[in-house]
Amino acid sequence: MTTIADIKKNAEAKMAKSIEAFKNELHKIRTGRAHPGILDQVQVDYYGSLVPISQVANVSLMDARTISVQPWEKGMGAKIEKAIRESDLGLNPSAQGDLLRVPMPALTEERRKELTKVVRNAGEDAKVAVRNLRRDANEQVKKLVKDKLATEDDERRTHDDVQKLTDRVISEIDRLVAGKEAEILAV
């Protein structure tokens, strides 16, 4: 049987997961600087199965605007280069022997503005997810009260606690959005 404490703990855990998912989403959004994580979603054909680049090569930074990709096997360089070119990241790798250099093109002002919109939309989606979690928690508490397993005072207190948690999580999302926007707009 679920208790009010379980409901609160569950809501808190799910909201923490929402923030983690949002942070991962933000990592995928490109800023002017290079970071190895940008290639995480690019998949390479490795003996008939698609795997992330990080599983077939060493991905690291050469400098602030260049990522280096060092394949672990001889024949993988061309496949990795093709996979990066065909990804929707707009990157153009160049091969130097076995090593691939992936320069990050500078962002135009227009592209920066588009990216801030993408960040804001991702932030809104994260807030909607958190609000849905709040609603679910509140409905679970209402059900406990209806089944006479909790009092109306418990319900009110729990609604207040869940609301405080929601406000805290949403302000954290707003902070992350503002930080990412500042990072994107910094030339």
Automatic annotation (TrEMBL):
<dbReference type="InterPro" id="IPR002661">
    <property type="entry name" value="Ribosome_recyc_fac"/>
</dbReference>
<comment type="function">
    <text>Responsible for the release of ribosomes from messenger RNA at the termination of protein biosynthesis. May increase the efficiency of translation by recycling ribosomes from one round of translation to another.</text>
</comment>
<keyword id="KW-0648">Protein biosynthesis</keyword>
<feature type="domain" description="Ribosome recycling factor">
    <location>
        <begin position="22"/>
        <end position="185"/>
    </location>
</feature>
<dbReference type="InterPro" id="IPR036191">
    <property type="entry name" value="RRF_sf"/>
</dbReference>
<dbReference type="InterPro" id="IPR023584">
    <property type="entry name" value="Ribosome_recyc_fac_dom"/>
</dbReference>
<dbReference type="Pfam" id="PF01765">
    <property type="entry name" value="RRF"/>
</dbReference>
<keyword id="KW-0963">Cytoplasm</keyword>
<comment type="similarity">
    <text>Belongs to the RRF family.</text>
</comment>
<protein>
    <recommendedName>
        <fullName>Ribosome-recycling factor</fullName>
    </recommendedName>
</protein>
